[in-house]
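Morning. Coffee machine broken again, so started the prediction first thing and wrote up yesterday's gels while waiting. Chain of 121 residues, entered below exactly as on the submission form.
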Amino acid sequence: QVQLVESGGGLVQAGGSLRLSCAASGSIVEIKTMGWYRQAPGKQRELVATITRRGRTDYASFAKGRFTTSRDNAKNTVNLQMNRLSPEDTAVYYCYAYIQPQWGTPWDDYWGQGTQVTVSS
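Came back before lunch.
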């Protein structure tokens, strides 16, 4: 069984920084894309950033220049460094990974339970 566990959320003042981490564990053959999504109250879940196994990154426009994602393939972890946070960044942040859990089984999307990020003005 695959699990994604996030950590690092919390409360921060506008202009501050937070670093989110996510570790994938369990029965894992390979992980392709990992990344982060977020969902603010009353809004749909949206992409924040993704990173391929080879390190190619993709960012939402609001994240470019402020957020940086990185991963450690050996540890099955992905991080999100968020700088210059604003109240508009307040949301639940979800870790995401595209994983093949066992040899011969289909690849599938996996999600963490989410971590709250609150930015005060």
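DSSP finds no helices and eleven strands in the chain. Going to sketch it on the whiteboard this afternoon.
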